[in-house]
Design goal:
Layout lengths: L2 E4 L5 H8 L4 E4 L8 H8 L4 E5 L6 H6 L5 E5 L8 H6 L3 E3 L6 H16 L2 H9 L20 E5 L3 H9 L6 E5 L5 H7 L2 E2 L2 H7 L2 E4 L13 H4 L7 E4 L8 H9 L5 E4 L10 H4 L4 E3 L8 H19 L15
Parallel strand pairs: 1-2, 1-3, 3-4, 4-5, 6-7, 6-9, 7-8, 9-10, 10-11, 11-12
Helix pairs in contact: 1-13, 5-7
Bound molecules: (2R)-2,3-dihydroxypropanoic acid.
Length: 323
């Protein structure tokens, strides 16, 4: 019987699906991210691993999993897995694309609005009982109409994000490896070089996976190209942006603000970032809707079972594509 190890309990929808499978499974009993050593201790005689984006599935882990056939990530991003090592050993790797697209795109808009209309700051102001009456200049923000939205990466989530903004009257620029005909036809989006996008956009939103090529894609040089009135939104991966350079830009007022759901060294967040008032900070909740998390759980389990049954899992990944 196939032995499966889950590095953490996943939503009931996935556990139920797993229960229908005849294989024997074990769930890591703690409600916290598993460590590399704990993975190694648990993977010895396991054929299927269901893991999370917080889990370091390194070469050491993969080598310890001598009977491992499939690693099913409960996430669309899979930079936590050494895919090359897995591929070398013929171990399948899968992810959960599609099912969290809308949830993540919606959260990117929530961050964008929170920045543009200073929602978090205004809430704090109100709770602190500082609202003494309507004022012509109280908490003025940025209007979206006629502004330029810049997408760094126009894959599934970037596309959904831009399409959801159709009603706001913004112009859309994007940079990607490939032309995006859907965006071009539906909203007249223009594909430009990253440098041009950074110079022209009022709101820049990152939607690229983290790879060797996208690590610090936005560093000091790139951030210096942004308009002083620009906002940066990141719901992809923290390390796509050089966090130190971003903090400097925010501190020196070289950009107006940022909305971040992801960080370079999660779950650690730099004190400097926590102390800034021109940022909105969220705890990596892009896909945190009931629907998305249930579907992610079902998808991850379906991938896992297919792989263990000798079938090609629906969401097989290879070495990540780069921007
Ligand atoms: C993913 O699936 O990669 C997301 O970051 C989870 O929210």
């Amino acid at each position: 019987m196939a032995r499966i190890f889950l590095s953490r309990k996943i939503p009931e929808a996935g556990m139920k699906r797993l229960g229908e499978f005849t294989g024997d499974f074990l769930v890591f009993p703690h409600d916290r991210p598993i460590t590399e050593n704990e993975l190694i201790e648990n993977i010895d005689d396991v054929e299927g691993l269901l893991c999370l984006l917080t889990d370091p599935v390194t070469r050491r882990v993969i080598e310890a999993g001598k009977r491992l056939k499939i690693i099913a990530n409960y996430a669309v991003g899979y930079e936590n897995i050494d895919v090359k090592s897995a591929n070398e050993r013929g171990i399948l790797v899968t992810n959960t694309p599609g099912v969290l697209t809308d949830a993540t795109a919606e959260l990117a808009w929530a961050l964008l609005f929170a920045c543009a209309r200073r929602i978090v700051e205004a809430d704090r102001f109100t709770r602190e009982k500082r609202f003494n009456g309507w004022s012509p200049t109280l908490l003025l923000g940025t209007e979206l109409k006629d502004k330029i939205l810049g997408l760094i990466g126009a894959g599934r989530i970037g596309t959904a994000f831009a399409l959801k903004g159709r009603g706001f009257g913004m112009r859309v620029l994007y940079c990607d490896n490939h032309e995006n005909e859907v965006l071009q036809k539906a909203i007249g989006a223009e594909m430009v070089k990253m440098e041009e996008l950074l110079k022209r956009a009022d709101f820049i939103s990152s939607h690229v996976p983290l790879t060797e090529k996208t690590y610090h894609l936005m560093g000091k040089r790139e951030l210096a190209l942004l308009k002083p009135s620009a906002y940066l939104i990141n719901t992809s991966r923290g390390a796509v942006i050089d966090e130190k350079a971003l903090i400097r830009a925010l501190k020196e007022g070289r950009i107006r603000g940022a909305g971040l759901d992801v960080y370079e060294n999660e779950p650690k967040i730099s004190h400097e970032l926590l102390g800034l008032s021109n940022v909105v900070l969220l705890p990596h909740i892009g896909s945190a809707t009931h629907v998305a998390r249930d579907k992610m759980a079902e998808t991850a389990v379906e991938n896992l079972i297919a792989g263990l049954n000798g079938k090609t899992p629906p969401n097989l990944v290879t070495i990540p594509k780069t921007l």
